[in-house]
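Example record

The entry below shows one chain as it appears in the dataset: sequence first, then structure tokens.
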Amino acid sequence: MKQDKGMVVFGVQEGSIAHELGLSKGDIILSINGVVPKDIIELSFIVQDENINIAVKKAPVMQKDGSFLPGEVELFEIEKDEEADLGIDFEYAVFDGIKPCLNKCIFCFVDQQPKGLRESLYVKDDDWRTSYLQGTYITGTNLKEEDWQRIEALHLSPLYVSIHTTNPDLRVKMLNNKRASEILSILDRFKKAGIEIHGQIVLCPEINDGEELKRTLNDLKKYKKILKSLAVVPVGVSKYREGELLKPLTKENANNVIDLLDEFNLCQKRHIAMASDEIFLTAKRQIPNKKYYGDFVQIEDGVGAIRLFEDSFYKCKKKLKKSLKNKKRVTFLTGAIAAGMFNKFKEEINVKNLEIEVMEIKNEFFGDKISVAGLIVGRDILNAIKGKYFEHIILPSVMLKDGTDEFLDSIRVADIEKELKKNNKNAVIHINRDCYNFEEILTILNEE
């Protein structure tokens, strides 16, 4: 069924103006005050008017025979307070299409995926608008003058920037784009405009580490006024990667990175640069205390997740029951990175009649070099649990597409549950929605 151009309504907030108008999921906003906004940013300015005219094409209506009756176009005239929001949720932050990535990065994980996954997984997002709205990283290689003017005029800050290296020639090599050499000019313009940034370095051993990392950190010292944080994360290499094989992070590499970042922070007299959890684990060092991570602004990049979760565990541990009336067995499914943490929890949970099991899922789909839970697919879980007996399984929501019960390979939680029930019809799957908080898990463990 062909979809009209416009803004597709994903949800309507209860009691909002949109709710009173009778708008619903699937309706299409064709224009507001005669304008078709390019994105949420432009929309937020348009809807500030007290008088608004909205053109809406209602969602198609399915008939008894399964055919669809096209929705009608309706016009609404609204008078509202200037601050009042319409109460419409949209699935995407931009309406005119994502500004695509023009690079061919040597470490790009999108290019390391097999065919046949969800279409959205192959989208290369290098859009400054989603960077501002959702915290996605941009390289700056596709910024046009009109983009710069809009960023500067609206003072859209902070933005998330993939730096990787400040060596122009090396950045060109890493991103396979001549415009990648402009990184210092890009940072200079952000500095002049007062646009704050959160930086990212994907560390590729023997390419942008060692002396090159020293050079990058030294160059970044002049941007201390706008550089609010810097995350260093190791490159992920799947078995589908073609071409020259990137070297894995070693214990020596990892320790060197942590030391360099500590020196940088000491020089800056404030904590900006942070190594990811994976780097600390590879270095065989303890995860730092929460002061190291500040406001945990880079947690979505795997920086500080273990510290936040461990702190939550020790807070919740005091609330665990001493004993359960009936025997209960709970299994944590996780990846290699978090398995050590969960085994540590297992040793410290002492509840009578409660048996804890930690099952590390090997990543056969992407390869054994991928160890994060967020890249575990459904079929690997199915293979791991096949023929085994389980009672309660806890899955972290990072394994699922946001707001759904679907894994990267389109297998659903219901498929996992179906397999479990072959050996125990009473088996239950619990999804830990807040992966940085132990509260949900505490409730599951305490349930009789």
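Notes for this example: The radius of gyration is 25 Å. The first strand starts at residue 7 and ends at 12.
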